[in-house]
Amino acid sequence: MDRAKVFESIEKNLQLSFARSSGAGGQNVNKVNTKVRAAVSFEKVEGLSQSEREQAKFKLKNSVNGEGFVFVEAEDERFQERNRAIATERLKAKIIQAAALPKKRKKTKPSAASKEKRLLSKKLRGKIKALRSQRF
Questions:
Q1: Which residues make Cβ contacts (< 8 Å) with residue 40, sequence separation at least 6?
Q2: Are residues 36 and 18 in contact, defined by beta-carbon separation less than 8 angstroms?
Q3: What whole-number distance in Å separates Cα of residue 68 and Cα of residue 51?
C-alpha cells in the first residue's frame, strides 16, 4: 500500500457538501452551513493493490452507496474549515484501515518452562484432592 498515493488520490477526487449543523454555535447555527459531508469514489482511489482493494470493498460494503462513493460526515466543530479537515482525515483513515491486510499467524509451541509449570500445578492439585479422600 502506497499511503502517499492513496492520500493524494483521495484529496484530488474529494467531493464536499455542506449543511446546517446541530450543536454549539448559538444563533449562528441557524444560518451557517458548518456540517461537512465528504465523499470519494472508491474506484478512483489509487495506491492499493488488488487484494487490499478487495479487502476494503468487503469491509466498507455498508459505507459505500450504489454509485461507489464512500461517505463521512463531520459536525464536531463550529467552523466549516475545521470540519473539512476532520472529514478528510476520517475518510483517509477509514479507507487505510479497511484496506489493511491481516498479518499471518505464526504457530508457536509452549516453551519447556511453561510445560513444566503446568505439570507441576497439576501434580499439586492432584495431591490436594488425594488428601481429601484420606480418613482420620
A1: 10, 13, 14, 15, 69, 70, 91, 95
A2: yes
A3: 18
Spatial distance between the Cα atoms of 69 and 130, rounded to a whole number of angstroms: 68
* pTM for the full predicted model: 0.69
Residues 43-101: tens digit of each pLDDT = 888 888 888 888 888 888 888 888 888 989 898 888 888 999 999 999 999 999 988 88
- Grid cell listed for 94: 477509514
List the grid coordinates of 43: 474506484
CA distance 21 to 75: 6
Per cent of the chain over pLDDT 90 is: 31
